[in-house]
């Protein structure tokens, strides 16, 4: 291995829905971080690894920073700030199809408080805009830097969707990483326990198509997971028992659906994803439970992994 091998931690930050998880997935090349068309679904700090001949990037995906209204909101914000402080480089995602707004300014001002940390501005979703709009967006990003007193280490336009400029982004991140050996063995994609990833996949499926406030009210805990005994060696099966927690009885109805139709759909969708993740057929046993006001109760929050 050459002396110039670089390795370290990078983290994408930005308002909800700006494409952080999609970008992580596109760079890692597999579905590890959790994406959703609904905002604020990334809860856990999920790390994806980018292996290259010259470097290893450990991508840390954080939830969006937002105005805290509950204990959970505050914990999420703490988690974000702690993560920022620990990484080698921060990349602020600013979607090209949206104007820079107060939310972005708030966030960039927070990032600017991290002294001496390289910060890259990433113009995301460039496949959605024409060149004129992109130029305007890049000018706005420059202005945002001046306004907030941050000096962008780089400004790079990318599309996670088309893959355009992904390599450039990776190069720019690598350049800013310290020299050092790989932090994780080659082949590892994430250091999250499989249970956490499985829970996230179920949660993602459970949120799909739900149009109310459910994102903050839904938690998934994998209670038990393991290979079923007495299976022929060439036909393994993994049993997974998981609980979907909601805050109120009415939400339980939403998740289960008429005659259990929605819950069956959630089971089918997430099972397919889990089987892809684990590479093994899976028997998935899902239950919906009410944990009253879990977001406001420190004991319940701990039990649910926050
Ligand atoms: N067209 C296009 N859509 C994208 C791109 N990147 C992300 N999206 C879409 O934007 C939406 C949000 O993407 P996410 O990756 O979940 O966003 P996020 O910033 O991680 O969101 P939170 O987890 O809520 O903070 C999804 O519907 C994505 O499919 C892109 O490069 N091009």
Briefly say what this structure is.
With 306 residues, the chain is an alpha/beta fold. The protein contains nine helices and nine strands. Bound molecules: guanosine-5'-triphosphate (GTP).
Specify the CATH architecture of the largest domain: 3-Layer(aba) Sandwich
**N-end to C-end Cα span:** 39 Å
Bound molecules: guanosine-5'-triphosphate
How much strand? Answer: 15-25%
Structure description:
This protein is an alpha/beta fold and 306 residues long. It has 2 domains: 6-175, P-loop containing nucleotide triphosphate hydrolases (Rossmann fold); 194-303, K homology (KH) domain (GMP Synthetase, Chain A, domain 3). The chain contains 9 helices and 9 strands. It has helices spanning 20-28, 71-86, 102-112, 131-148, 166-175, 194-207, 249-256, 261-278, 298-303, and strands spanning 6-13, 46-51, 55-61, 89-95, 119-124, 154-157, 219-227, 238-246, 282-290. Strands 2-3-1-4-5-6 form a 6-stranded mixed beta sheet, with helices on both faces. Helix 3 links the parallel strand 4 and strand 5 (119-124). Residues 31-44 have low confidence and may be disordered. The protein binds guanosine-5'-triphosphate. Guanosine-5'-triphosphate binds next to helix 1. Residues 6-179 form the Era-type G domain. An essential GTPase that binds both GDP and GTP, with rapid nucleotide exchange. Plays a role in 16S rRNA processing and 30S ribosomal subunit biogenesis and possibly also in cell cycle regulation and energy metabolism. Residues 158-160 are annotated as: G5.
């Amino acid at each position: 291995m050459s002396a110039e091998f670089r390795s370290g931690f990078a983290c994408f930050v930005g308002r909800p829905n700006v494409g952080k998880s999609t970008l992580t997935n596109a760079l890692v090349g597999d579905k590890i971080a959790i994406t959703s068309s609904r905002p604020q679904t990334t809860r856990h700090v999920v790390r994806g690894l980018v292996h290259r001949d010259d470097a290893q990037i450990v991508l840390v995906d954080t939830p969006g920073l937002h105005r805290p209204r509950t204990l959970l909101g505050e914990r999420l914000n703490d988690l974000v700030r702690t993560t920022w402080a620990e990484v080698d480089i921060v990349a602020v995602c600013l979607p090209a199809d949206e104007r820079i707004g107060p939310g972005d300014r708030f966030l960039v001002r927070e990032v600017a408080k991290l002294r001496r940390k390289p910060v890259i501005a990433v113009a995301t979703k460039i496949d959605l805009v024409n060149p004129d709009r992109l130029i305007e967006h890049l000018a706005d990003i420059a202005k945002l830097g001046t306004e907030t007193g941050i000096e962008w280490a780089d400004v790079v336009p990318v599309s996670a969707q088309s893959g355009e400029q992904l390599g450039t982004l990776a190069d720019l991140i690598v350049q800013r990483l310290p020299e050092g050996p790989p932090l994780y063995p080659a082949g590892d994609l994430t250091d999250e326990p499989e249970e956490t990833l499985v829970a996230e996949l179920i949660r993602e499926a459970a949120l799909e198509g739900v149009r109310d406030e459910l994102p903050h009210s839904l938690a998934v805990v994998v209670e038990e997971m393991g290979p079923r005994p007495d299976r022929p060696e060439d036909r393994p099966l993994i049993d997974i028992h998981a609980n979907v927690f909601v805050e109120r009885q009415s939400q339980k109805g939403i998740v289960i659906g008429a005659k259990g139709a929605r819950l069956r759909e959630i089971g089918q969708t997430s099972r397919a994803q889990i089987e892809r993740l684990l590479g093994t057929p899976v028997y998935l046993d899902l239950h919906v439970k009410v944990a009253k006001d879990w977001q406001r109760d420190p004991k319940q929050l701990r039990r649910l992994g926050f």
